[in-house]
User: Fold this.
Amino acid sequence: MVRYPLTVTNLSGRTAVVLGGGIVGERKVRGLLDAGLPVRLVSPSATEQIAAWAEAGKVEWIRRSYRDGDLEDAALVFAATNVRSVNRAIAQAAHRKKLLVNVADAPAEGNFHSPAVTRHDDLIVSVSTISAQPRRATSARDRIAALLE
Assistant:
């Protein structure tokens, strides 16, 4: 598998679509909001935090399950439902549209991974692993963040 790290920029006016409102979806939404991206969440339910963001107008929450067409105008797609077949269908739809898609429960089905990120002023440090070891990336990110404080 070919891997090439990059930072996505100039997404003004574009939307990140997160499908799934559980703990994993919340983590994805938090990172997107931290980056300043508009977020559309498609999920029949959501965590209390996501609901609070939606009520505050920070997240557009469509309260239903995934449907064809939900990826329109998406810059980034995050398949984070708790249903394997739905995440697979989201990934397939995103690939047909040539979109960047992250699949939480089957990373190999997507075409990008979310790194562990720390932000300090105008510096963004992201850490990712070649293998699926998010704890290792998180640990390295935390050590780097401590050095930057």
In short: The two ends are 36 Å apart (CA to CA).
